[in-house]
Amino acid sequence: MGVENQIEINGVTHAYQTDDGPLPVLEDLNIMVPLNSFVSVVGPSGCGKSTLTRLIAGLMMPDEGEVRLHGEVIKAPKSTVGMAFQNPVLLEWRSILQNVLLPLEIVPNKMSAKEKTARAMTLLSLVGLEGFEDKRPSELSGGMRQRASLCRALVHRPEVLILDEPFGALDAFTREDLWQIMHALRKEEAFTTLMITHDLRESVFLADQVIVLSGRPATAQHILNVNLGHERTLEDLYTVESVNMLAELRHQIQIAQGRSSATEAAA
After folding, report:
1. Is 59 a domain residue?
2. What does the alpha-carbon distance between residue 247 and residue 92 come to, in Å, rounded to a whole number?
3. Largest CB tally within 10 Å, which of 84, 158, 171, 227?
4. For strand 220-225 and strand 209-213, is the pairing parallel, antiparallel, or unpaired?
């Protein structure tokens, strides 16, 4: 049997309408994300990475092609998708626990109030926020608020988690801490992840596969399979294999930016 794909981007082309005419963003984009895998997407600024997340979330429709989740064409937002962004967007008038519980107030479910609270508390414990559930967002650090945002994105047990540069605004040490928390969450929770990032180290440390998008209009320029195993530590980023993968990705980004040729990359 072949690999079962959770997300399928089939021949997607999309352009934004501007006063100067259509602005092509994606062109004949094809991406397959296997079930329960973690795929990172990198590429030059403005190449359409965030547009891709909105298409997968069903927040917009492509001009051409289709997006499928578990074989079903996406035509509207899906309750089986969770999302986390660079800005946690937590509601200040709600406690951290109440913020995490918010999706369960919106997404139809059969859980009792007790079960919902237990689910949220389990996630908060997994990310190291046990004891902070009654705090307000302003009482937590940026890293702690992002942990709460991850819990909120996962509380309704989504099949797909979309991460749009969730750690980009954090300092390096907090970012690395959250990378390890993501690995811990993947051990405990079954979900397929697609993450947009500008951090190549982050993409290699977290992902099973890294997709490099070309310059706009973007297509899938290069695919890197990350063979570091599921048990990863930060030290793995300093191995010869990781250094070579990072060099490969940097060269591909240079090609996407028009600063290097594909012939040079193959040399």
Report:
1. no
2. 42
3. 84
4. antiparallel
114 assigned to some structural domain:
yes
Look up the domain containing 250 and give its range.
Answer: 222-267
**Whether 15 contacts 63, CB under 8 Å:** yes
Cβ burial, residue 264 (10 Å; 0-12/13-18/19+): exposed
> Closest Cα partner for 33 from 58, 6, 11?
6
**Residue ending a domain, choose from 180, 197, 214:** 197
The pLDDT tens digits along the chain (267 residues) read 455 778 999 999 999 988 888 889 999 999 999 999 999 999 888 788 889 999 999 999 999 999 999 889 998 888 889 998 888 889 999 999 999 999 999 887 888 999 999 999 999 999 999 999 999 999 999 999 999 999 999 999 999 999 998 888 788 888 899 899 888 888 888 889 999 999 999 999 999 999 999 988 999 999 999 988 878 899 999 999 999 999 999 999 999 988 766 555 454
Helices (H), 189-239: 200-206
Longest dimension (CA), the chain: 60
Q: In this structure, are residues 34 and 194 in contact, taking their beta carbons and an 8 Å threshold?
A: no
pTM of the model: 0.89
